[in-house]
Design brief:
Elements lengths: L11 E10 L2 E11 L2 E6 L2 E6 H10 L1
Antiparallel strand pairs: 1-2, 3-4
Length: 61
């Protein structure tokens, strides 16, 4: 299985590392962060969905 949401095709998200300097947060660099993918069983199929898609589908079902 590939590391992508099977509903919205999200694989990575941007995230920012921060360093605290003089009581302020200084953005240091942008890095890639994996999406929060979870296995979800709907009917007989097992899908790999991100958190937001999983919540939407479980609300409907």
């Amino acid at each position: 299985m590939s590391w992508k949401c099977q509903n919205c095709l999200i694989s990575y998200k941007k995230a920012v590392k921060r360093k605290k300097i003089r009581s302020k947060y200084n953005p240091v660099r942008v890095y890639r962060q994996k999406a929060n993918l979870q296995k979800t069983k709907i009917g007989n199929k097992t899908l790999l969905l991100c958190r937001s898609c999983r919540r939407k589908l479980l609300k409907i079902a």
